[in-house]
Amino acid sequence: MIDQLKTEMNRRFGVAPADVRVVQSPYRICPLGAHIDHQLGQVTAMAIDQAVYLAFAPSEDGNTHLQSRTFEGEVSFALSDVPDKRDGGWGNFPRGAVRALQQEGHKLTRGITGLTAGRMNEGGLSSSAAIGVAYLLAYEEANDLSLSPADNIRLDQAIENGYLGLKNGILDQSAILLSQKRFLTVIDCASATHELIPRPNTMPDFDILIAQSGLREALISTGYNTRVDECARAARILLNAVGRSDREPLLGNITFEEYDMHKNLLSGASAKRARHFFTESERVRLGIDAWRTGDLDTFGRLIAESGRSSIENYECGSKPLIDLYHILIETDGVYGARFSGAGFRGCCVALVNPQKSSAAIEQIQSAYRAKHPDLSKNAPVFICQPDDGARIL
What is the set of domains in the chain, with CATH numbers? Predict the structure, then answer.
């Protein structure tokens, strides 16, 4: 892949292969901690060996010229003329990266000439965060900037919140930038700190199985932002009840004891969103304990329970995605499965016994094809492995 991209950069732009750098920015999975990062919860994550690749070379004239193996056309703009608003195209990501860096006071004098490759629209695997991180690392390298992972987590969140219009937390960026092979990344979204917990040698091997639903829809046009607003409504009611109405309306600002005492004040959607937050937080705690001791069966069971709560309490998931979840948890060899990402389109992720992976893929594809023959034509099921976080190769 790397040599191919360098050769293609030479063919498309005339850049010498020796002058080309390549960013590998992985996708991520979140075994436990669904939909609680934006509420200051604790979440778990792993980077995987499927990634966005960005081959690039610095552009001394301050202009950016980009092409893609995935998207049509070319994106070109000057560093001095980045629009305030997104335009709906794939150029939003590089422009958002430049805006985020400039707004934090970083001086950019060099643009980039670049070529992107990889699965660019992998709903549920945080392809948007992976793309944003890739552009940040490329512009920083081109302009001799040395920023920490914490800086880039903040900057990529600025791209997604400020430029793309998503109300998400720091899970995606943190997983992509901090993860390491054979470790579970635990992210405390309240303190913006993380811990890497090693995988015990006693833990059985597992494959990561990704099952795509075939659904394609932009995140901001789903119910994602609506769910965040419903969490805020629940938090306001609970904070008022405990005399802290001045605090930001996030469920992470409420203790479990306070929630348990005043949950009767909640009703409807707000009650369900709060129930998901506090039960999912407990699943994260139990899951971390299971990982530390190598108890993959318990870890997988908690993942499946997380998926069920996402359906019943967070109320996300279309019928195809819910069907896919049920197919996965009923498949032999699967330890646990849940929606990945926002949970309205995209995919389900599962941990599966490596000796049963091939049979599981066939069983899942057959069962999904029977329920959704049209969607199944564009719904691959594939195996991947944990990997290290984003880096320049």
Answer: 2-196 (3.30.230.10), 200-391 (3.30.70.890)
